[in-house]
């Protein structure tokens, strides 16, 4: 096949215009074009150019080799890479048919794809998920948002689908992906009911409500292929013998023997991290970030980013990505920007407040929100691999107190935050966080260096997005779980550095950040597990 890049068409082009553009670009007749597929579609909405879609397409033509020679000097016409997924093994190749089935701990994006690929290769994995099936979990999550009742085992962090279920459902990443594992992730989501457009739009997303059905259908495929999903089974310990994993201990259930265990824990499985540390599994502290959620009217962001194209339905709600390097040496950046979304309560522990952002597929809520976070390192929280958890907990407990000790979040208007005075009433921006926002002074919610850096960054961001520092935009605290505070270090074989058969994976282990990269890491680890079975 041939790949053409940089095909530009007006946003409102007719359906047949893309094919016509291909024919013109290659100077061929319609009968010479066998088929074409859109690989990517982005848009150019700069204020000084006509609104346009930019396409990358893969196509089959007659006399392909001749055509490629004709355009050999054109960098925008090249052979298409092989993006198809190839399984590395099959369980039928394992000589010992009595091998113990692989165990996957956690059923977020990483665990789902690790289990799915293992099942597709015939290894019939057993998945242990401490939380509930996604629809029951959704009800429990609403219990916190609507009734101030937290279920520590079923919430935004724990349960089928992982933390990504209650997010924007973003499916893009900056990871290097030479083997196109990301295409496998996208293809499986589409097969499970996600919209076809996620295959080619530049910044694909699914949205929370659609993710629920997608996750359920992926679960069903794993079961149909011989896998098991065991909900409400919390792993509390590990049986390690001669530096080899031999099994896992499950609260209220018999121990489960296993010599291949995938740790797809997610970044909030703090008690499991503690159990792994107690068992002697090697891990180390790593950098992460803390900060607040900021909310603006989505219309303000649309106007600032899209100018005269704001409100165009074909483009949708605008997003942003911002970075500022403060004078005190701290980096401040926007995190998990959710166009037309809401700020959600994301704690998993009693008497603590954590925020996150979420959007539905439509992205049509009134406010835009994003984390405005400050990078921190282990030097800020010395004390060993688990010190970052203690640091997070202290901030989350402080936020609970500042919010009135009712799971309401502490909040402050941006103008008051910059002026250093407590807020007393909302302006034009009404915060979306449920159970509610308690206005206060956020100066004590973060370490002084973080407050100083954010106060410097917000006016700097105003230079990129007019209105960003509007006085009645709202800051809501606190964002602490941007990524895992530790890394369960692994070697080139994807196994723990000191425990054979233990496969740290995904965001909780420090190897992913978001749905797509977590899914990709799950696939890589599943392949490593399968190859290890074959080698044994």
Task: Give the secondary structure arrangement, pairings included.
Blueprint: E1 2-10, H1 17-26, E2 33-44, E3 52-61, H2 64-70, E4 77-79, E5 103-105, H3 109-120, E6 126-129, H4 134-147, H5 181-191, H6 208-224, E7 228-231, E8 235-241, E9 244-250, E10 256-257, E11 261-263, H7 270-278, E12 284-285, E13 288-297, H8 298-306, E14 323-325, E15 331-338, E16 342-345, E17 355-358, E18 367-376, H9 387-402, E19 409-413, H10 414-419, E20 437-439, H11 448-462, E21 474-479, E22 486-487, E23 502-504, H12 515-535
Helix pairs in contact: 3-6, 3-12, 5-12
Helix vs. strand class: alpha+beta
Strand segment tally? 23
Number of helical elements: 12
**Using only CA atoms, what is the Rg?**
24 Å
What is the helix fraction of residues, given as a range?
25-40%
Describe the structure.
It is globular and about 70 Å long. A hairpin with a 5-residue loop joins strand 9 and strand 10. The longest helix is centred in the C-terminal third of the chain and has 21 residues, at 515-535. Strands 14-15-18-13-21-19-20 form a 7-stranded mixed β-sheet. A 5-stranded parallel β-sheet has the order 7-6-5-11-23, covered by helices on one side. A 4-stranded antiparallel β-sheet has the order 2-3-1-4, covered by helices on one side. The chain has helices at 17-26, 64-70, 109-120, 134-147, 181-191, 208-224, 270-278, 298-306, 387-402, 414-419, 448-462, 515-535; strands spanning 2-10, 33-44, 52-61, 77-79, 103-105, 126-129, 228-231, 235-241, 244-250, 256-257, 261-263, 284-285, 288-297, 323-325, 331-338, 342-345, 355-358, 367-376, 409-413, 437-439, 474-479, 486-487, 502-504. It is built from 12 helices and 23 strands. With 536 residues, the protein is of the alpha+beta class.
